[in-house]
Automatic annotation (TrEMBL):
It comes from Sorangium atrum. GO terms for molecular function: transaminase activity. Residues 17-85 form the HTH gntR-type domain. The keyword Transport does not apply. Keywords: Aminotransferase, DNA-binding, Pyridoxal phosphate, Transcription, Transcription regulation, Transferase. SMART domains: HTH_GNTR. The keyword Transcription regulation applies. PANTHER family: HTH-TYPE TRANSCRIPTIONAL REGULATORY PROTEIN GABR (PTHR46577:SF1). Gene3D superfamilies: Type I PLP-dependent aspartate aminotransferase-like (Major domain), Winged helix-like DNA-binding domain superfamily/Winged helix DNA-binding domain. This is PLP-dependent aminotransferase family protein. In the C-terminal section; belongs to the class-I pyridoxal-phosphate-dependent aminotransferase family. It comes from the Bacteria. The lineage of its organism: Bacteria, Pseudomonadati, Myxococcota, Polyangia, Polyangiales.
């Protein structure tokens, strides 16, 4: 058996490369099916050309390609034979093949995702903003302005830190609106990416993360995906119970504390000023960093919202996560992580292992919109609209409380209200409501250890009439139980 001949060009006279490909595919299928065994001589190139209705030269190009793949061997003056198989372990018996599967080694599995609700008539489960409140004409103008001014260069991806103009505008906005001053900011795909970045950068297998209970379970998933253990700290009417956290720090080596101080998720309570000071002092004394999630700071309706923990002079150990998705729309996946330049260098390198860059057009358009003043005008209008929806939601719940046992915690801010249904199995009530098109967040889905009769009802993206109708369905089902 001699060496394979020099491969012929796969280009036909008219420049096309495709004439030989169907022939090679047909021969490859025949070899895979076992109709030609190892060592068997193939028909001559003239016979194959006649069989496939192509020129003999086309067949020879296809055969040379299969030789290059190791499927055939060329013999001078003899033709082409089926190549012997590569040596390897014995193939399983026919009856074993159906049971033979390759198993990937899964090191970490965050567990099954939350069940998808699909389309529901009354979406009270997620506290997301109402896209109908957006000034679409302004947004369209910002996108058009970016594309007209920058042309095709606008289509370049933003670098890993984010569009420089957007970074500048967000840093300035945080100083104006939230009294937070950072030297650097990393633009992320929503706040959830920021939480995941922090988890995979700061945590290792077996590390302990202290979280609020009840709390934000998507963050728990990110911590567990990094191999960490999530340990609950109770929440009461003044927010995270700092005394309980202190007892935990005495017992366990905690690597991170995750908190939502403003409009705590899901109860909507605000961490009191004394507890804020105590939390900062306690964690600083123990050398434990804080991951602060300030996801909807601007939606505050009674007085001014308290400044973030990160705004305190005694907060060098606070990593700050925020999002524009609550202020613009759920589909605008722009968040931010803020902290020291040294730490953000590490976070940026971590991010590059999975995401090379961000959405350059959207980030440039948002930078333009913020610089022009449209973003803050929208936030002011939206805050007034959501304050009216909150008041209407509380009126609906007050009427409901006259019909069934129901306790309501009026929220100072946010896009949802926390309710207690003390005489009803809350998960079953939520299930029955879902059958009738009302989606809610039952408290047990957001708890680790604490029992909960709570239910989170979001009013952000439904009208007052829709919220009232949904509450009527809940009351109706509660009476039937």
């Amino acid at each position: 058996m001699g060496p394979s001949p020099k491969p012929r060009s796969a280009v036909s006279r008219d420049g096309r490369r495709t004439r030989w490909v169907p022939v090679a595919q047909a021969l490859r299928r025949a070899l895979a099916s076992g109709s030609r065994v190892a060592g068997e001589l193939l028909p001559s190139t003239r016979e194959l050309a006649s069989t496939y209705g192509v020129h003999r030269q086309t067949v020879m190009v296809a055969l040379d390609a299969l030789c290059a793949e190791g499927l055939l061997c060329a013999e001078p003056r003899r033709g082409y034979r089926v190549a012997p198989p590569e040596p390897g372990p014995p193939a399983p018996r026919h009856e074993e093949r159906s049971a033979t599967r390759y198993q990937f080694r899964v090191v970490r599995d965050p567990g099954p995702p939350p069940a998808a609700l699909g389309q529901v008539r009354y979406p009270l489960h997620a506290a997301t903003p109402d896209p109908a409140l957006l000034p679409l004409r302004e947004l369209r103008a910002s996108y058009a302005h970016v594309l007209a001014r920058r042309g095709t260069s606008a289509l370049h991806a933003a670098d890993v830190d984010g569009n420089p103009a957007l970074v500048r505008e967000l840093l300035a906005y945080l100083r104006r609106a939230r009294a937070v001053q950072f030297e650097r900011l990393l633009v992320t795909c929503g706040s959830q990416e920021g939480i995941a970045l922090a988890a995979h950068t700061l945590l290792g297998p077996g590390d302990v993360v202290a979280v609020e209970d009840p709390g934000y379970f998507p963050a728990w998933r990110a911590f567990r995906a990094a191999g960490a253990e999530v340990v609950p700290v109770p929440v009461d009417a003044r927010g995270l119970h700092v005394g309980a956290l202190e007892r935990l720090l005495r017992r366990r080596r905690v690597r991170l504390v995750y908190v939502t101080p403003n409009h705590q998720y899901p109860t909507t309570v605000t961490l009191s000023a004394p507890r804020r000071r105590a939390l900062l002092d306690l964690t600083l004394a123990h050398g434990v960093p804080i991951l602060e999630d300030d996801y909807d700071h601007e939606y505050h309706y009674r007085g001014e919202p308290q400044p973030p923990l990160a705004a305190s002079p005694s907060a060098p150990h606070v990593l700050y996560v925020a999002s524009l998705s609550k202020l613009v729309a759920p589909g605008v996946r722009v968040g931010m992580v803020c902290g020291s330049s040294e730490l953000l260098d590490v976070l940026a390198r971590q991010r590059q292992s999975s995401v090379r860059a961000g959405d350059g057009v959207t980030q440039a358009a948002l930078a333009d919109w913020i610089a022009e003043g449209g973003f803050e005008r929208h936030v002011r209008r939206a805050r007034r609209a959501y304050a009216e929806r909150r008041d209407a939601a509380l009126e609906s719940l007050a009427r409901a409380a006259r019909k069934v046992p129901l306790e309501v915690t009026p929220p100072d801010g946010g896009l949802a209200v926390w309710t207690l249904w003390p005489r009803h199995p809350i998960v079953e009530l939520a299930r029955r409501a879902l059958v009738r098109g009302v989606a809610v967040l039952p408290g047990p889905l957001a708890t680790l250890e604490a029992s909960s009769a709570g239910m989170r009802l979001a009013y952000g993206r439904v009208s007052p009439a829709q919220f009232s109708a949904a509450v009527s369905i809940l009351v109706d089902e509660a009476k039937r139980m």
